Amino acid sequence: MSPTSNVTKVEYYEFLGVPRDCNDQELKTAYRRLAMQYHPDRNPDNPQAEEKFKQASEAYQVLSDPQKRAAYDRYGHAGVSGAGGSGFEGFAAADVGDIFGDFFGEMFNMGGNRRNGRVQRGRDIRYDLTLEFEEAAFGKQTEIQIRRAEVCAECRGTGAPAGRGPETCQQCGGRGQVRYQQGFFSIARTCPICNGSGQVITHPCQQCNGAGLTDRRHTISVSVPAGVEDGTRIRYQGEGDAGRGGGPKGDLYVVLSVKAHEFFERDGNDLYCVIFVSFPQLALGDEIQVPTLEGDTTLRIHEGTQSGKEFRLRGKGIPHLNEHGRGDLVVQVVVQTPKKLSKIQRDLLRQLGETMHVENKPTSRSLLGKMKDLFS
Questions:
Q1: What number is the average pLDDT over the span 38-64?
Q2: pLDDT of 1 strictly over 50
Q3: Architecture per CATH, 125-258
Q4: What is the rounded radius of gyration, in angstroms, for the C-alpha atoms of the chain?
Q5: How far is Cα 119 from Cα 212, in angstroms, rounded to an integer?
Q6: Which contacts (CB < 8 Å, 24+ apart) does range 35-39 have?
Q7: Looking at residue 114, what is its pLDDT?
Q8: Measured between alpha carbons, how far apart are the two ends of the chain, in Å?
Q9: Does residue 123 contact residue 250 with C-beta atoms inside 8 Å?
Q10: H helix or E strand, kind and range, residue 291
């Protein structure tokens, strides 16, 4: 009797969590997820996880084969009793290689080639650069200093001194892999001694202690374009850590942090600010000086302007990143009510109040907005 003959069979689609009309990619993704979750390496001494791992593999083996899937869809488990009905007994050698070589070689680094443990891309480096608000608006040229791994000048990246190269790893015999028996099948894993290179350094370079890389300080010229925003990343290809075994260099990412302005607020390429004015200035009209990123400019306030009115100054905002043109500056004028008045000021306001009459009746916010638009 087979080991799983007395185990209740699972419904394949339900177990994998896919619809019955799923395509090959959906099927593969679902199987990959369950295989990662229940793989014996991640669940040592857990028979329940091992059983689920077998069931997931059985379901994928059947549903990934068009003929077996058609038979299963029509007759259920009875239609594929010879294919997946007894654990791994129905698995052909080629099927096992296709499934586990593709999935687990990628997920668990099993079955990788020998060079993967030796030739490695260098790590990326992050540098945080803080900018003033105006520097982000108009750009900046600056220099930064970073520490990065570079190829050791003494051993030229080999990790061994001149005349003493790496030796064949005794653990894996130079293959870069060791094999373990895992239940029904054999699994190849990267050799833990040589990390897949097939070679070990018995006499390391004194300069880099066998790493082949040394940590050095380096100066980089950074060009910040006009119009950048907070959180912008500037990538410098090949300016990161050097790779191992002749691998390519990583990249440098300069991440920009922009300080807040004293009174300007940014929304895209537009700037916003609030200017306080007096009631007479709005009632009679006036010319006031308002700030921009390039100095003050004159703003004409028309007679009868309402408090809260916004004025848009074209082209006074933030330059468009890597494009021509600029955003706008939006200035909102708001009446500032004085907190203290002299006797003369009080008398004058009382006289003005006697000549003016505003009926204090409530109105909706939408109607108030329409009235403001009408007056403006």
A1: 86
A2: no
A3: Ribbon (2.10)
A4: 36
A5: 12
A6: 35/103, 35/104, 35/107, 36/107, 39/104, 39/107, 39/108
A7: 39
A8: 90
A9: yes
A10: strand 286-292
310-313, strands of its sheet edge to edge: 265-267, 270-277, 329-335, 310-313
pLDDT tens-place string over residues 289-302: 999 999 999 999 99
Distance CA 275, CA 264 (A): 11
For 204, which DSSP code? -
Fold of 265-375: HSP40/DNAj peptide-binding domain (2.60.260)
Alpha-carbon separation of residue 146 from 127, 171, 212, 268 (angstroms) = 8, 39, 19, 31
301 close to 282: Cβ distance less than 8 angstroms: yes
Contact 191, 223 (CB under 8 A): no
Structure-token pair, residue 345: 């000021």
Q: How confident is the model at residue 76 (pLDDT cuts 50, 70, 90)?
A: confident
CA 104, CA 317: separation in Å to the nearest integer? 54
Q: pTM here?
A: 0.58
Mean pLDDT across 162-169: 79
The confidence score (pLDDT) of residue 156 equals 85
Amino acid at residue number 210: G
296 token code pair? 């003050």
Torsion sign, CA atoms 134, 137, 143, 149: positive
By three-state DSSP, how is residue 13 classified?
A: helix
Helix axes 47-63, 93-107, angle to 10 degrees: 120
* Cα 305 to Cα 284: distance, rounded to the nearest angstrom: 9
Residue 168 falls in which region: left (phi positive, over 0), alpha (psi -120 to 50) or beta: beta
Q: What is the mean pLDDT of residues 201-207?
A: 85
- CA-nearest of 330, 324, 219 to 273 is 330
Pick the closest to residue 89 from 68, 66, 61, 69 (CA basis).
Answer: 61
| Amino acid present at 110 | M
Q: Return the amino acid letter for 269.
A: N
The 10s digit of each residue's pLDDT in 19-41 is 988 998 889 889 988 888 888 77
Contacts of 327 (CB under 8 A, 6+ apart): 268, 269, 270, 271, 317, 318, 319, 320
Q: Which CATH architecture has domain 12-108?
A: Orthogonal Bundle (1.10)
- List the chain domain ranges: 12-108, 125-258, 265-375
